[in-house]
């Protein structure tokens, strides 16, 4: 089984990487981009029988800094 974890900075947390991407897009002539939020995607190959609760625990302990980041788990 596979799981995909999407991790993003919470709203209100400054995102300097996203701002750098927004600026670079403007410099390349892509007008109209008013904001960019950058995150990460983590794919996990899990043993059969693994649960979403186990993946959530992984996120809480290691994969996401829950003080400044939110995450979403997708089992596939």
Question: Your description of this structure?
Answer:
There is one protein chain. The chain is α+β, with helices and mostly antiparallel strands. It has one domain: Mth169, Chain: A (2-Layer Sandwich). It contains two helices and three strands. It has helices at residues 16-27, 52-63, and strands spanning 2-9, 39-45, 69-75. A three-stranded antiparallel beta sheet has the order 2-1-3, covered by helices on one side. It is elongated and about 50 Å long. The mean pLDDT is 97. Part of the FGAM synthase complex composed of 1 PurL, 1 PurQ and 2 PurS subunits. Its EC number is 6.3.5.3. It is found in: Cytoplasm. InterPro entries: PurS (IPR003850), PurS-like_sf (IPR036604).
Query: How are the strands ordered across the major sheet?
Result: 2-1-3
Query: Can you give the helix content as a percent range?
Result: 25-40%
Strand elements, count: 3
Give the helices and strands as they follow along the chain: EHEHE
How would you characterize the largest beta sheet?
3 strands, antiparallel
